[in-house]
Amino acid sequence: MPTSLVTGGSGFIGSHLTEHLLARDHRVVVLDDLSTGRVENLAHLREHPNLSVRQGSITDHVALSEAAHNVDEIYHLAAAVGVKLVADDPVRTIETNIYPTEQLLRLAVQGKVKRFFLASTSEVYGKNPGERWTEEDDLHLGPTSRPRWAYGCSKAIDEFLALAYHQKYGVNVTVGRFFNVVGPRQVGNYGMVVPRFVDAALKNAPVVVYDDGSQIRCFAHVHEIVQCVADLTAHPQSGGRVFNIGSDQPVSILELAERVISRTGSQSEIQFLPYNKAYSDDFEDVQRRVPCVDLLGQTIGRKPSRTLDQILDDIIAWKRGLLASE
Ligand SMILES: NC(=O)c1ccc[n+]([C@@H]2O[C@H](COP(=O)([O-])OP(=O)(O)OC[C@H]3O[C@@H](n4cnc5c(N)ncnc54)[C@H](O)[C@@H]3O)[C@@H](O)[C@H]2O)c1
User: Fold this and answer.
1) 212 by DSSP, 3-state: which?
2) Domain spanning 3-182+220-247+290-304 has what CATH number?
3) Distances in whole angstroms, Cα of residue 24 to Cα of each of 32, 231, 252, 304
4) Distances (CA, A) of 159 to 163, 175, 196, 268
5) How far away, in angstroms, is 79 Cα from ligand 1 center?
6) With 0-12 CB in 10 A as exposed, 13-18 as middle and 19+ as buried, what is 64?
7) Is the distance from CB of 75 to CB of 18 less than 8 angstroms?
8) What is the pLDDT of residues 72-121, one digit of tens each?
9) 3-state SS of 45-102?
10) Which residues are the active-site residues?
């Protein structure tokens, strides 16, 4: 029975991954400081004999070493996440997203960890003007004077570190660049668009679209994503490589707002808010973000395929269940 460390395991994706690994008969150790994660995300697994949850920060070297002791594989998901949080606190972003990744890679070398998954992000592509982004594309980050780019840049440095540790020490690292992942347990507090729209629609409150809503995104269900992560990490050909992980079905944010209103049967109106009111005067967004997921599909024989309506229906049902139990 392999033992897996999941950093950020009380978070949105991390809790689903933890559930998935337990279902595959792994022992799982979670390290999470509950800064954006929530105890409730793993509450239903509290009594699971193969799960151990540690509350602590990845920036605490002792806590990190103890959590990584004797594990077979590491899934490194803990990070300062969310466009809003990152724009508000760039120092925290850099401290959380860079140094601990290197510490963890060192621990992986010392502990002879067999597999290491690094959660990266589509944000590393920055403002790349391409129609579909492939893993070998150039990165088009904005200027350092704009804190928004600190997130993508910090994750790009993580990727360099991971690939360097693969090259120099043979750490079996797989880098996964997540594109918008959505599903039950995701919360809207940190600027995530789908939970924010669903929350508003279920209250018949205005659904607030930033700018004109012409931004293009692709949304994938978290259940499909964690399956891809586990399959990729276990795959013998994934070490030392970078993979886009997400849906390749584009939708505009305005269309997303309309679909959320229609699927919830809401009376909500759509309101438009300029970026400088939503964030700050120097905020820049990415207009189009569509991945090429051919490499993922060729490697594990699968890519996320649920339709937007299927995904929204699942999130809406989950949210309605929560509201009913309050
Ligand atoms: N959700 C997405 O669409 C998306 C897209 C791209 C990349 N990602 C990446 O996926 C990973 C998981 O993101 P998520 O969406 O589940 O967000 P999340 O905020 O729910 O998960 C992050 C988790 O890390 C924990 N954490 C943060 N700082 C920590 C610290 N110092 N020590 C210990 N734990 C800490 C948080 O408490 C939280 O549980 C992140 O690395 C993120 O960058 C997510």
Assistant:
1) coil
2) 3.40.50.720
3) 21, 11, 36, 20
4) 6, 7, 30, 41
5) 5
6) buried
7) no
8) 999 999 999 866 777 788 888 889 999 999 999 999 999 999 999 999 99
9) CCCCCCEEEEECCCCCHHHHHHHHCCCCEEEECCCCCCHHHHHHCHHHHHHHHCHHHH
10) 151
126-135, 158-167, 180-189, 223-232, range with the lowest pLDDT? 180-189
Find the 165 Cα to ligand 1 centroid distance in Å: 22
| Atom 18, ligand 1: residue with shortest CA distance | 11
122-162 tens-digit pLDDT:
999 999 999 999 999 999 999 998 888 889 999 999 999 99
Does 125 sit in the ligand 1 pocket, CB within 6 Å? no
Label residue 287 left, alpha or beta by phi (over 0 means left) and psi (-120 to 50 means alpha): alpha
Residue with tokens 């004797």, as numbered in its chain: 70
Whole-number Å distance between alpha carbons of 184 and 38: 13
39 ligand 1 Cβ < 6 A: no
Q: What are 75's strand-pairing partners?
A: 6, 117
Using DSSP's 3-state secondary structure scheme, residue 172 falls into coil
Contact by Cβ (8 Å): 253, 212: no
Q: Residue 50: its pLDDT value, please?
A: 98
* Atom 26 of ligand 1, residue of closest alpha carbon: 78
121 pocket-lining for ligand 1 (C-beta < 6 Å): yes
Name the residue among 114, 127, 32 with its Cα closest to residue 76.
32
What is the average per-residue pLDDT within 158-183?
A: 98
Residue 269 corresponds to which tokens in the numbers above?
A: 């109106």
Q: What percent of the chain has pLDDT over 90?
A: 87
Domains of the chain, by residue range, sit at: 3-182+220-247+290-304
Q: C-alpha 5: how far from its chain's center?
A: 17
* Model pTM above 0.90: yes
Tokens of 286: 């990415």
